Amino acid sequence: MAEVIIVRDQEEAGSIAASLVVEQLQRKPDTVLGLATGSTPLSTYAALAATIRDMGLDVSQVRGFALDEYLGVPPEHPQSYRSVITSEVVVPLGLTPSLIHTPRGFGTGVQASGDEYESAILAAGGIDIQILGIGTNGHVGFNEPGSSLASTTRIKALAAQTRADNARFFGSPGDVPTHCVTQGLGTIQRARQLVLLAFGPAKASAVAAALDGPVSASVPGSIVQLHPRATVIVDEEAAALLQHADYHRMARAGVAGLGLG
Ligand code: GLP
After folding, report:
1. For the chain, which has fewer Cβ within 10 Å, the N-terminal or C-terminal residue?
2. How far is C-alpha 227 from the geometric centre of its chain's CA atoms?
3. Is the pLDDT of residue 15 over 90?
4. Ligand 1: which of 142, 143, 168, 179 to mutate, most ligand atoms within 8 Å of CB?
5. CA of residue 71 relative to chain centroid, distance
6. Whose CA is nearest to atom 1 of ligand 1?
């Protein structure tokens, strides 16, 4: 079972997730980070930037791979995930830009982009720690319901629900791209550690389906149940429909209270 941590708010979640990343960075200075976009990981990136600054951590060798990218959006577009990763992660954390990758979603030969990206992740030795959000329909990365559990990085169509959810980042729903390049569910499962975050009532049913329902292509987030090292960090609203919320609270309080250091 994934470790489930129910927190007060996004700040507490961000500081717990950032501490998991920092432990990894201390073990391996050229750690390979898996980077999610969206609003959910922002408190993690903010906490990470502050910790790196306060501890004076050298992150110059850190490598990174974004989960996904819109298809047909030029990299310089403010809503391309290349731009978002640059402004939300690379700059605030002080990472080396040439070591941080996003899938190529624009230009000639884009059909080969998924295989190229998959090979680049393998060549880097695989992802050490993957930060994840979850869509209201249960998607992770842009693996929409129905995606193969063994899938690798490839071009996919976005679900209508996802385009509606992401309309807030674009001028209108019609401006949201229809396709993307996303790491597959198999790619994500090969990461050595997963940290999935979710906040707010709109995520409650997706979180419950991912953690308590069957492992299923219909709920891509349910892959966390298969992963040997997955931490799920949710606020009370996102945890509202979890069957075992009391158990998760008790387990956390119990370990903290044992004084094991
Ligand atoms: C986006 C991204 C996902 C993200 C999810 C949730 O479309 N492709 O990686 O986890 O949808 O987004 P948010 O965190 O803004 O709720």
Report:
1. C
2. 14
3. yes
4. 142
5. 19
6. 38
Contact (CB, 8 A) for 81 and 38:
no
Give the chain's radius of gyration (CA, Å).
Answer: 17
3-state helix, strand, coil in the chain (%, to 5): 45, 15, 40
User: pLDDT band at 26, cuts 50/70/90?
Assistant: very high
Q: Compute, in degrees rounded to 10, the torsion defined by CA atoms 218, 222, 223, 228.
A: -160
Residue 177 and residue 71 in contact, taking contact as beta carbons nearer than 8 Å:
yes
On the 0-12 / 13-18 / 19+ scale of CB atoms within 10 A, 81 is buried
CA angle 209, 17, 22 (to 5 degrees): 145
Considering the domain 3-257 in this protein, what is its CATH number?
A: 3.40.50.1360
Domain spans in the chain, listed from the N-terminal domain onward: 3-257
Please indicate whether residue 68, judged by its CB atom, sits closer than 6 Å to ligand 1: yes
Q: pTM, whole model, 2 decimals?
A: 0.96
